[in-house]
Amino acid sequence: MADAPVVAVRGEAYRETAPELARFTVTAVARDRDRETTLTRLAERAAAVRALLDAAEPAVERRETGQVHVRPVTKRSGDRVVAYQGSLSTTVTTTDFTALGDLMLRLADQDQVEVAGPVWSLRPDSPAYREVRQAAIADALVRAREYAEALGARVIALRELSDTGMSAGPPMMVKAAYARSGEPEPELELDPAPQPVHAAVEARFTISEPVLG
């Protein structure tokens, strides 16, 4: 079999699938001339955000506190501190897309709170990845058989299979920043963005002796 003819092919598959996760960031900010006042307001606003997220469970699958920023604000002409500014960001992950828009609006309705997102994505272990890999292998086998048939031969065995890599499209994000308003509570409808998934393999198959002529 070592000297048997070989056909080398590349198999590919592409799918678009519904997202499984949505992530957004909620940031509480505070600013005042007095440092202690700034810290107190920041803590109060962060606590209000936390309380809303607590109430939103189980829609909230995961939340992570990002960096806390507290810095003095100085005049350009010197080092004199004119105010203190602070912010605290939390990344929220949810799988409940029906409650997502309402949750983002309720968070954004808090005083001095900014909301940005969502970012749509798949889970790292999503079945979509396995399905597209299997589809890529099937495509490689179809191509090998087509080449073999064109030569009057048939595929006998697989000699080598290598994964050239899998890619998912960049996370789809809708940026938004909402400000508190006295208007009646709005509604926010969000359309989840399909997630592209691509896989490719390279394969070498042993084929029977071609019938040439």
From TrEMBL:
Pfam families: SIMPL. Coiled coil: none annotated. It comes from the Bacteria. One of its GO terms (biological process) is DNA damage response. PANTHER family: PERIPLASMIC IMMUNOGENIC PROTEIN, SLR1258 PROTEIN. This is SIMPL domain-containing protein. It comes from Micromonospora marina.
